[in-house]
Design brief:
mainly alpha; disordered C terminus; elongated; 152 residues
Length: 152
């Protein structure tokens, strides 16, 4: 196992360039470009806030505001599910690269996970801004049990 990790460290330049290529390719040709990484979680949180405040008011004890509580779980879940979904097909999509050159196949799923991690990290400032807005700051104990963001 450690031999494989050491081999990945040797390919870190390749991983960095593939992650940059993946991020550039995702928003190429769109009007907002890379800003979609900020707008997507922001719009998601705004829609959930509207739905759970006005359309279907949720009264969950210890989880007020409910949209913010739910967003604390949706943000990492989106990273996990999109990484898993995209990684499942990336080996087939990159088969021409794997067949032509001596190329470590495990790099392609790692690139997908890292690209989605960057989108996750860009969603965290939106979470922090809404935590401040709702005056629900995390204590040291709550931040160690991520993604628990509820007020006590």
């Amino acid at each position: 196992m450690f031999h494989n990790l050491a081999r990945l460290l040797r390919h870190r330049g390749l991983i960095q360039s593939l992650v940059a290529r993946e991020l550039k390719a995702r928003y190429r040709g769109s009007v907002l470009g890379f800003f979609w990484s900020f707008f997507n979680p922001l719009l998601l949180l705004l829609v959930y806030s509207f739905i759970f405040k006005y359309v279907m008011p949720a009264k969950a004890e210890g989880a007020e505001p409910y949209a913010l509580f739910m967003f604390c779980g949706i943000l990492p879940w989106t990273w996990f599910s999109s990484s898993l979904t995209e990684s499942a097909g990336v080996l087939i999509a990159g088969s021409n690269l794997i067949k032509k050159v001596l190329f470590p196949a495990e790099i392609l799923p790692i690139v997908t996970v890292l690209a989605n991690m960057i989108h996750f990290l860009l969603g965290l400032p939106i979470l922090a801004a809404f935590l401040i807005w709702y005056r629900a700051p995390l204590t040291a104990g709550e931040s160690s049990r991520s993604p628990s963001c509820s007020r006590r």
